[in-house]
Design brief:
The structure holds two protein chains of two kinds.
Chain A: E1 3-6, E2 10-12, E3 18-25, E4 34-39, E5 45-51, E6 58-60, E7 68-73, E8 78-83, E9 92-98, E10 116-120
Parallel strand pairs in A: 2-10
Antiparallel strand pairs in A: 1-3, 3-8, 4-5, 4-9, 5-6, 7-8, 9-10
Chain B: E1 4-7, E2 10-13, E3 19-25, E4 33-38, E5 45-49, E6 53-54, E7 62-67, E8 70-75, E9 84-90, E10 97-98, E11 102-106
Classes of the chains: A mainly beta, B mainly beta.
Chain lengths: 122, 107
């Protein structure tokens, strides 16, 4: 069964960092890239960036560029998203999603993780 | 960035009604448009890609059309399980952007 399993909820203080994991099951990890999308409480969806599971190439949205790092571990079929210098504006549910098969972000997200709630609060 | 707008913001319809949502892009995105369904507390689900192609396993009462800047999403006969928020999303250029969503509920 194809699924993306994410790590559990996190509570962080302003200025801290958070690292969310996304483990892939049911297909070959390196066959598809991973995008990360977040959703603040009661708000819409925001694409954060993309990581190639083949070569580790990344493409980040300018809103989080400089604070985010997306990586992969092919030995465990896991993708990671680390966000630094957290503020209350980063409080959101963070989703990983399967992206396309190309060497650049595809933009069609056909399988999603269940989401990881990150709360930033002093 | 390409801005996506949707209308209406929310709607209430009866079971069996035809429901239509529109999505407009701030510039030409040809047919690089997806539609997602999100139920409360759940992750989004891909329903339609390339503006009009139904994802495998999605009921045929869902459909999409349009190209360029104007797109339409239709539920031909609303069912109770269709209560959700629907989002359009463009993938013509980076950063990928979503519409603000349309909340659909039962009258």
């Amino acid at each position: 069964q194809v699924q993306l399993v994410q790590s559990g909820a996190e509570v962080k203080k302003p200025g801290a960092s958070v690292k969310v994991s996304c483990q892939v099951f049911g297909y070959t990890f390196t066959s598809y890239a991973i995008s990360w999308v977040r959703q603040a409480p009661g708000r819409g969806l925001e694409w954060m960036g993309w990581v190639s599971t083949n070569n580790g190439n990344t493409n980040y949205a300018h809103k989080v560029h400089g604070r985010v790092t997306m990586t992969t571990d092919t030995s465990t079929s896991t993708a990671y998203m680390e966000l630094r210098s957290l503020t209350s504006d980063d409080t959101a549910v963070y989703y990983c999603a399967r992206d396309g098969v190309g060497v650049a972000p595809g933009g069609t997200f056909d399988i999603w993780g269940h989401g990881t709630m990150v709360t930033v609060s002093s | 960035d390409i801005q996506m707008t949707q209308s209406p913001y929310s709607l209430s319809a009866s079971v069996g009604d035809r429901v239509t949502i529109t999505c407009q892009a701030s510039q030409d995105i040809t047919n690089y448009l997806n539609w997602y369904q999100q139920k409360p507390g759940k992750a989004p689900k891909l329903l339609i890609y390339d503006a009009s192609i139904l994802e495998t396993g999605v009921p045929s009462r869902f459909s999409g059309s349009g190209s360029g800047t104007d797109f339409t999403f239709t539920i031909t006969s609303l069912q109770p399980e269709d209560i959700a928020t629907y989002y359009c999303q463009q993938y013509d250029s980076l950063p990928f952007t979503f519409g603000p969503g349309t909340k659909v509920d039962i009258k």
